[in-house]
Structure formats: structure tokens, C-alpha cells
């Protein structure tokens, strides 16, 4: 029996802005395995729209929603600065929680949320939905296949040029490009990497948006093994280069977008061992050798061999089938450790 025919999850949503309405409501409103029972928003027009279109109860704030709702899981889609406080209220009410990224505005705040899940014996889902994307799954499969050899450098760049003037451009609301888009790209980078980040340099700056928060961030990191992670997330770059580069000991992947990727690689087992010549006076004054690498070049669709479903598929699986949580809160907290570090040094 398909999950859509099974016991639906009663869900409530706090905040009906872009994330709450356009992402979470849209993701579950037509699913038979979720049922929206309550929403909350300060804006009367949004509450009226929700009652009319969803047939659910409406509330002006999270407190009144939690006092009345039958939901077993509640979505936090409020402004960034409120994520921790709202998440704690939900967990302490005995309900599971989906929290938008960033899960908090500080690493310590993220750890407090994780601690609360243990005390409440509830589940905390952090909405890092890009982990479910074909792009991430394809890149992870490519690394794991060994076709590139040992991947020693990962470059991810999400770039464009646009001027913003909304609340997410203000520091006082926890805004900025690194806080808003950064959690997605940093999460992907850390989960493609071979271990935790042990060193970091960053340039985090405000260039042209109306507010005072950053609109450009460039992070250069190394893992404990020495693998390099180069992440650029900016709305201040008008001409773009590659979106993704994976550099390995026997090849490279390069993608200009999230649709197709070029690979150039060779099979080292088809080559004779290369031995160093430790002589200063090289015969014939010749440097290098006559090595001819058997390069193979391919263009591949950015599509994994096996898709893992969506974020909300995973929520349902965890709550109804005791499935494995794909995005663990501890991983999301590590994303915040790196972002907070970048803000501090950048």
C-alpha cells in the first residue's frame, strides 16, 4: 500500500509568508498522507485565504495555535530570528517540529533545540530540502563511485545579481544571503565533504542591497584530512562561472548548471606505475615524460541512479514507518557552526 493511502499526519503551519505558504502549504495541501489542521499568521488577509482554500482553523500567533491544535507536527516558517524560540515552544508542547532554515541564528541556539528534542522525546526536522535534490544525490553518487579518484577539492558557486529591499536584507531580522541561502549550499558542501571543517577563511560583505546584511559570501574551508571546500553564495556577481567543480586524483567534474555535468577522467589501472627520477642532471635536459593518459570524456545528466523522494516524504516515513531521518538536526547544527564562524572571521 502506498504511503498516500495510509494514516495522514496532522500538520500545522506557523507563518504564511513565502516559505510557509509557497513551500510548506504547497508541498502538502494535495497529499493524502498529510492534513493541514491549523495555521497561524499575524496578517488577517493570509488567515482568510488559508481558511477559504484549506478549510483549516486559523490563529493570530503560535501560542494560540499550540493551545488549540490537534496537529502532531508543527512547521516554523517565521522570520529567522524567531526560529529557535518557536521551535522550543513546539517541542515543549509535546509535538514534533519542522523548522525552516536556518534552524536558529546561532550555533548555541541550534544545540538548545537539539537538547529540547531529547527532553521532549520528539522529532526535529530541519528543512534542508536541497539534500533531496537530484543534484546533491548525483554528486554524492559520483564521489562514491570513485570515478574521479580521491576528491581533494569541492567548489560550489550559487551566483547571480539582484538588488533586494525586503526584511531578509536586515541584520536585526537575522537576514543576509549567508543566513538565507547559505544554509542550503553549506549543507550540501559539508555532506559532500570527507569530514568536518577544521579551518576556514571567509569574505562576508554587504555590497548593494537596501538593508545592512550581507549579499555576498565566499568561504574557503579545509576538512581535517586537508580536503578543500570552496563555497560562494552571492547576489552580487553578474557573470557566472561553473556552478559545481569536483577535482579528483584521476579526473574532474564540472557543471555550469544543475541539469548537465561534464566529466573528464581516466582509469589508473590501465597505466604503468609512475616512478620519480631523483636526478638533478636529467638526460637530454628533458622534463616531464611521455605519459599518455587514456582520458575519457562524458556529459551526464544530473540525475541520480536512485531518487530518495522529497523532504515531506521523509517526514511521513519517519513518523509513520520509523524510517531514517535524512537531514539530522546535528548536521544542521554543524551548518550553523560553519556559518557563524564565517560571519565572525569574514
Written description of the protein model:
It is built from 10 helices and 14 strands. It has 346 residues and is of the alpha/beta class. The chain folds into 2 domains: 144 residues, Rossmann fold; 174 residues, Dihydrodipicolinate Reductase, domain 2, CATH 3.30.360.10. It has an 8-stranded mixed sheet, with helices on one face. A hairpin with a 4-residue loop joins β12 and β13. The mean pLDDT is 96.
Per-chain topology:
Layout: E1 9-14, H1 18-28, E2 34-40, H2 44-54, E3 57-59, H3 62-68, E4 73-76, H4 83-92, E5 96-99, H5 107-120, E6 124-126, H6 134-145, E7 151-159, H7 177-180, H8 182-192, E8 197-205, E9 216-223, E10 228-234, E11 244-248, E12 251-255, E13 260-265, E14 296-301, H9 311-321, H10 329-345
Parallel strand pairs: 1-2, 1-4, 2-3, 4-5, 5-6, 7-10
Antiparallel strand pairs: 7-11, 8-9, 9-10, 11-12, 12-13, 13-14
Short structural description:
The protein is an alpha/beta fold and 346 residues long.
Cα-atom Rg, whole angstroms?
23 Å
Number of strands: 14
Query: Uncertain regions: pLDDT < 50 for 5+ in a row?
Result: none
Shape: elongated
Distance between the termini: 51 Å
What do we call the CATH homologous superfamily of the largest domain?
A: Dihydrodipicolinate Reductase, domain 2
What CATH calls the topology of the largest domain is: Dihydrodipicolinate Reductase, domain 2
Supply the helix-strand structural class: alpha/beta
Secondary structure tally, helices: 10
Largest sheet: 8 strands, mixed
Calculate the mean pLDDT score and round it: 96
CATH architecture of the largest domain: 2-Layer Sandwich
How many structural domains does the protein architecture include? 2
Q: What is the spatial order of strands in the main beta sheet?
A: 8-9-10-7-11-12-13-14
Helices and strands, in order, run as EHEHEHEHEHEHEHHEEEEEEEHH
Amino acid at each position: 500500500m502506498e504511503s498516500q493511502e495510509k494514516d495522514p499526519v496532522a500538520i500545522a503551519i506557523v507563518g504564511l509568508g513565502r516559505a510557509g505558504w509557497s513551500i510548506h502549504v504547497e508541498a502538502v495541501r494535495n497529499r493524502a498522507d498529510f492534513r493541514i489542521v491549523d495555521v497561524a499568521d499575524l496578517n488577517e488577509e493570509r488567515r482568510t485565504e488559508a481558511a477559504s482554500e484549506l478549510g483549516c482553523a486559523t490563529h493570530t500567533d503560535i501560542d494560540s495555535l499550540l493551545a488549540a491544535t490537534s496537529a502532531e507536527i508543527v512547521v516554523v516558517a517565521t522570520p529567522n530570528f524567531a526560529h529557535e524560540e518557536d521551535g522550543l515552544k513546539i517541542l515543549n508542547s509535546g509535538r514534533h517540529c519542522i523548522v525552516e532554515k536556518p534552524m536558529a541564528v546561532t550555533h548555541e541556539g541550534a544545540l538548545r533545540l537539539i537538547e529540547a528534542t531529547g527532553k521532549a522525546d520528539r522529532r526535529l526536522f530541519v528543512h534542508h530540502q536541497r539534500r533531496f535534490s537530484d543534484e546533491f544525490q548525483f554528486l554524492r553518487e559520483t564521489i562514491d563511485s570513485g570515478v574521479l579518484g580521491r576528491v581533494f577539492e569541492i567548489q560550489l558557486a550559487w551566483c547571480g545579481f539582484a538588488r533586494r529591499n525586503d526584511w531578509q536584507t536586515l541584520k536585526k531580522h537575522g537576514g543576509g544571503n549567508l543566513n538565507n541561502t547559505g544554509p542550503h549550499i553549506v549543507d550540501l558542501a559539508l555532506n559532500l565533504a570527507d569530514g568536518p571543517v577544521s579551518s576556514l577563511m571567509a569574505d562576508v560583505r554587504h555590497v548593494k542591497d537596501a538593508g545592512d546584511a550581507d549579499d555576498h559570501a565566499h568561504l574557503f574551508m579545509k576538512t581535517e584530512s586537508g580536503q578543500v571546500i570552496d563555497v560562494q553564495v552571492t547576489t552580487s556577481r553578474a557573470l557566472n562561472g561553473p556552478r559545481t567543480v569536483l577535482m579528483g586524483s584521476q579526473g574532474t567534474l564540472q557543471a555550469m548548471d544543475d541539469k548537465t555535468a561534464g566529466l573528464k577522467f581516466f582509469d589508473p589501472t590501465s597505466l604503468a606505475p609512475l616512478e620519480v627520477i631523483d636526478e638533478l642532471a636529467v638526460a637530454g635536459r628533458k622534463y616531464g615524460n611521455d605519459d599518455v593518459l587514456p582520458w575519457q570524456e562524458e556529459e551526464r545528466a544530473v540525475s541520480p541512479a536512485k531518487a530518495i523522494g522529497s523532504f515531506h516524504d521523509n517526514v511521513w516515513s519517519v513518523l509513520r514507518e520509523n524510517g531514517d531521518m535524512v537531514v539530522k538536526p546535528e548536521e544542521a547544527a554543524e551548518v550553523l557552526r560553519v556559518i557563524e564562524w564565517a560571519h565572525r572571521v569574514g
